[in-house]
Amino acid sequence: MSDQQRREIKHDREKAILVGVIHGENSEFTINEHLEELELLVDTAGADVVGRVTQKLSRINPAYYIGKGKAEQLIHQAEELNVSLIIFDNDLSPAQTKNYQKLTEEIKVIDRSTLILDIFVRHARTKEAKTQVELAQLEYMLPRLTRMWTHLERQMGGVGTRAGAGETQIEVDRRMLRVRIAKLKIELVRIDRERDTQSRRRKDFFRVALVGYTNAGKSTVMKTISGDDVYIQDQLFATLDTTVRMVKLDEDHSILLSDTVGFIRKIPHHLVASFRSTLKEVVEADLILIVMDASSLQIEDHYKTIKDVLGDLGAGNHESLVVLNKIDMLEEDGRLNYLKREFPDGIPISAREHLRIDQLLEEIKTKMSAGYKTASFTFSYQQGKEMAAAQEGVIVLDRQYEEDGVRMVLKGSEQRINQISSSLNK
Fold it and tell me: Is 197 contained in some domain?
């Protein structure tokens, strides 16, 4: 792409103003951090931020979230700057959304959840991801239906009104919308059953799931460990689909490595619920690798977000390793020393530069071996097929050829050892 083409694309992007509220325990510093992240989301959605507005409130205004005078001033400011989009960092209620539509017909006023859903619509590639995103979008927008559809019809496109729920459902009433939601839920149940079937096939293997804040480098870690080509882009939510790869760490250790959708602060509830089948890879993992961007100044906040989401999924107490990625981007040794104090068990790596990857792999193997069980099995000389199958996914500690057959001492996960025992006792 030429510089001229880039300039033309940049010129066509919508202009946006971000709105944050200093309220309760949130300080001005915290709100500015949140708005920085929101600006990254806006860029991913294809718009440019031209201003930020914050207001300190003792209580949230039920009509406009911010004060009425501030809301009117905000609309006036947007009109002067030729801004077409106002984005709140907090969720707006259906009533608040409608009140802003009464203040302006030309400017879209949306919230963080609508923006994230818009990004997910753009990045959904597979049928599963598209189904999950559409369900989340429809459930979120259902209570906002009355005037929002005519509003979207006027705006027709752009950030916050992207394809799917925003455009294709404009003329349907609430009853038809609920029918569509019901159909999507049935489709997700079917997808869930397919995932359960896949999951049963994978139970013989040690399963490792990569989780982390979006853009922390999970896909790069995946590519570095597996050696396979995976989609990588320096953008929030570059991929929504779970990638699973078989990885042979050495002759005795093989794992199934999965990379899932990235986490983010204030992720919409409907989105987490819709993506629950995708995130089952995390729930059913034997080990979770929490990948974090070591160069981010918000790393502690990111870690809390990750732990909160894992808790919501029911995976809060799973065995895990903290992986401090992107250490090649640290400009001073003091930063690395600080991270070691904050995350004493964390493993500092650079997936992009292949730094300290061996240490990470050794830690994974240590975790694998800690949960292993050792057992002795005797195979007759007529059980060559069974003997070959039994050696998959385990470590052969000893092999003795005796008169009545071959005696082997195998070490592997308790589940795998029990499976071999059951197959021989049939």
Answer: no
Question: What does the pLDDT look like over 162-202, one tens digit per residue?
Answer: 545 444 444 556 777 888 889 988 988 887 787 766 656 65
Among residues 166, 190, 214, the one where a domain terminates is 190
pTM: 0.72
For 122, the 3-state DSSP assignment is helix
Beta-carbon-side half-sphere exposure of residue 330 (alpha carbons within 13 Å):
18
For residue 318, count other CB atoms closer than 10 A to its CB: 17
Q: What 3-state class would DSSP assign to 19?
A: strand
Q: Which residues contact 183 (CB under 8 A, 6 or more apart)?
A: none
Q: Are residues 266 and 216 in the same domain?
A: yes
Cα 8-82-76 angle, rounded to 5 deg: 165
298 and 165 within one domain: no
Tokens for 279? 């995130």
Same domain? For 211 and 91 the reply is no
Q: How far apart are CA 67 and CA 21, in angstroms?
A: 11
Domain boundaries, position 269: 202-369
